[in-house]
C-alpha cells in the first residue's frame, strides 16, 4: 500500500510538470523576466568631424640664400643684407625695414634677432615670424669689425613672415559708385551716394577741361580751311552745383530737383583763330574776356528705366555764354567775316538751355552717359553732345560733339565730378 501510494504521488507530480510546460492551455507560463537595467553597447568608432582650417602655412624659403648660420652662436655678426619673405616671395611692404634693428653694416646679435621678431609680431599682422641667418661669402667683414664679429663674412638676415588669417566677412562690401548726381555739364535730380533717391540738399564739385579739337568741318564761305583737326582749345570750367531734391522717385513718378550752379571759366591757351597755318601757343596766362564767373539756375526731373537713369530739364542764366569759347567758329567776329562776309558781329548769347541726358553705370568707376544741350538764342544754333566714353577707353577721357549751322567740331574732354554732400 505504501508503494502504491508513493507511485500515485509521483504520477501526479509528473502530470503537473507537463501541464506547466505547455502554454496555451490556461496554465501560467513562466518566462524569464527582462531586466530593466540599461544595456551597455560597446561604442562604435565615429571619426571626429574634420574642420577645414584656413590658417596659413609658413612657406619655405628659397634655396639660394647662402650657408645657414646658427643664431644660437649669439653673435655678433655684421649685417650685409636684410630680406623679408612672405608666401614664398619677397614682401612688397616697404615699411618693414623700419620696424627692425637689422640694417646693412650694423652689428647684430641674438638678442637683436629676438627684439626684431617681437617688433614684427607687435604689428598684429603676422601669426609667425621665423628668423634666419645666412653667410655671404662674397662680402667679407669690414676690417674694423674683424676682431669682433664671430663670422669672417657678412650675414644675410632673413625674416620669413606668416600672415594672419583674415576672417571672411559675410557683410556685403559697400562699393561707392560713380556720382549719379550729374553728367558732364548738366545735373540730375539725384543726390549723393546712399541717398540718391531721398529728398534733401546736395552739393557737388565738377571740373571739366576741353583739351582741344580732334576733328572738325565747316562750310563758312570765306574760311581758309574747311577741315580742321588737332587744334588746342585749353578751356577750364570749374563748377559748384547745389541742389534740393524736392521729390523722390517712385514706380511711376520721377525724382525732381531744383538748384543752381556757379562756374569759373578760364583758359590755359589762347582762343584759336580762323586763319591758315595758325596754331595757338600754350600759356598759363588767361585773358579777361575768357575768364568769367558764370551762373545758372535749373530744374530737372530724373527717372530710372532698368539700368539707365534718364533726366530732362532746363538751365537759366549766363552759363550759355560759355559755348562761344568751345570753338573759334562761334566767335561773333569770325562768323561775321568768314561766314556772313559783312563784318557785322552777330549775337552768340544764350540764356535758356534745355537739356536731356541718359546715364548707366556698368562699372562702379566707369560710367556711360550721353547729354545733349541746346543753347537757345545763340547764333548758328549750337547744339552740344557730350559722351562719357571712359568705360570703353579704360581711361578718363570723354568726347564732345559741337554741332552748329556752319559745321561741327569733335572735342576731347576730361571731366571729374565729386559728391561733397551727402557723402
3D structure, described in words:
The chain has 423 residues and is mostly beta strands. The chain folds into two domains: 67-163, Ubiquitin-like (UB roll) (Roll); 200-421. The chain is 10% helix and 40% strand. The chain is built from four helices and 16 strands. It has helices at 2-20, 110-121, 332-340, 390-393, and strands at residues 67-69, 77-86, 89-90, 107-108, 126-140, 153-163, 200-218, 227-247, 255-267, 292-305, 308-317, 352-363, 366-374, 383-388, 398-404, 407-421. Strands 7-8-9-10-11-12-13-14-15-16 form a ten-stranded antiparallel beta barrel. Strands 1, 2, 3, 4, 5 and 6 form a six-stranded mixed sheet that branches. A hairpin with an 8-residue loop joins strand 7 and strand 8. The longest helix has 19 residues, at 2-20. The protein is elongated. Residues 12-53 and 277-288 have low confidence and may be disordered.
Defining key terms:
423 residues; mainly beta; Ubiquitin-like (UB roll); 2 domains; ten-stranded antiparallel barrel; 4 helices; 16 strands
- What number of structural domains do the residues give? 2
Biggest sheet, open or closed, and with what strands and sense?
Answer: 10 strands, antiparallel, barrel
Shape label? elongated
Radius of gyration: 44 Å
Q: Which band does the percent of strand residues land in?
A: 35-45%
The helix content is 10-25%
What is the number of strand segments? 16
Number of helices: 4
Amino acid at each position: 500500500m505504501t508503494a502504491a501510494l508513493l507511485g500515485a504521488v509521483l504520477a501526479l507530480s509528473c502530470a503537473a510538470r507537463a501541464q506547466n510546460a505547455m502554454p496555451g492551455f490556461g496554465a501560467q507560463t513562466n518566462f524569464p523576466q527582462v531586466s530593466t537595467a540599461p544595456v551597455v553597447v560597446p561604442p562604435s568608432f565615429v571619426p571626429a568631424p574634420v574642420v577645414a582650417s584656413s590658417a596659413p602655412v609658413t612657406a619655405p624659403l628659397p634655396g639660394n640664400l647662402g650657408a645657414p648660420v646658427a643664431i644660437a652662436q649669439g653673435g655678433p655678426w655684421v649685417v650685409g643684407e636684410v630680406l623679408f619673405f612672405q608666401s614664398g616671395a619677397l614682401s612688397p611692404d616697404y615699411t618693414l625695414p623700419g620696424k627692425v634693428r637689422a640694417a646693412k653694416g650694423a652689428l647684430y646679435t641674438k638678442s637683436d634677432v629676438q627684439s626684431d621678431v617681437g617688433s614684427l609680431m607687435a604689428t598684429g599682422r603676422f601669426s609667425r615670424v621665423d628668423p634666419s641667418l645666412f653667410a655671404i661669402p662674397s662680402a667679407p667683414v669690414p676690417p674694423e669689425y674683424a676682431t669682433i664679429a664671430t663670422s669672417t663674412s657678412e650675414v644675410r638676415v632673413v625674416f620669413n613672415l606668416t600672415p594672419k588669417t583674415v576672417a571672411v566677412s559675410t557683410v556685403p562690401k559697400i562699393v561707392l559708385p560713380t556720382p549719379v548726381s550729374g553728367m558732364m555739364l548738366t545735373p540730375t535730380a539725384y543726390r549723393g551716394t546712399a541717398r540718391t533717391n531721398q529728398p534733401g540738399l546736395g552739393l557737388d564739385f565738377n571740373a571739366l577741361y576741353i583739351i582741344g579739337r580732334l576733328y572738325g568741318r565747316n562750310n563758312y564761305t570765306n574760311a581758309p580751311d574747311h577741315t580742321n583737326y588737332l587744334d588746342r582749345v585749353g578751356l577750364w570750367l570749374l563748377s559748384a552745383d547745389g541742389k534740393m531734391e524736392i521729390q523722390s522717385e517712385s514706380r511711376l513718378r520721377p525724382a525732381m530737383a531744383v538748384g543752381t550752379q556757379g562756374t569759373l571759366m578760364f583758359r590755359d591757351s589762347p582762343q584759336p583763330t580762323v586763319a591758315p597755318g595758325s596754331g595757338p601757343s600754350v600759356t598759363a596766362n588767361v585773358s579777361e574776356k575768357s575768364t568769367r564767373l558764370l551762373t545758372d539756375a535749373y530744374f530737372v526731373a530724373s527717372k530710372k528705366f532698368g539700368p539707365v537713369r534718364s533726366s530732362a530739364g532746363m538751365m537759366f542764366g549766363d552759363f550759355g555764354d560759355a559755348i562761344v569759347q568751345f570753338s573759334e567758329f562761334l566767335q561773333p567776329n569770325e562768323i561775321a567775316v568768314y561766314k556772313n562776309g559783312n563784318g557785322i558781329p552777330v549775337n552768340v548769347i544764350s540764356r535758356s538751355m534745355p537739356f536731356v541726358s541718359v546715364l548707366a553705370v556698368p562699372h562702379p568707376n566707369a560710367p556711360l552717359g550721353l547729354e545733349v544741350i541746346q543753347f537757345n538764342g545763340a547764333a548758328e544754333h549750337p547744339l552740344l553732345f557730350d559722351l562719357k566714353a571712359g568705360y570703353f577707353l579704360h581711361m578718363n577721357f570723354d568726347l564732345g560733339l559741337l554741332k552748329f549751322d556752319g559745321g561741327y567740331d569733335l572735342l576731347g574732354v576730361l571731366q571729374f565730378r565729386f559728391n561733397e554732400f551727402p557723402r
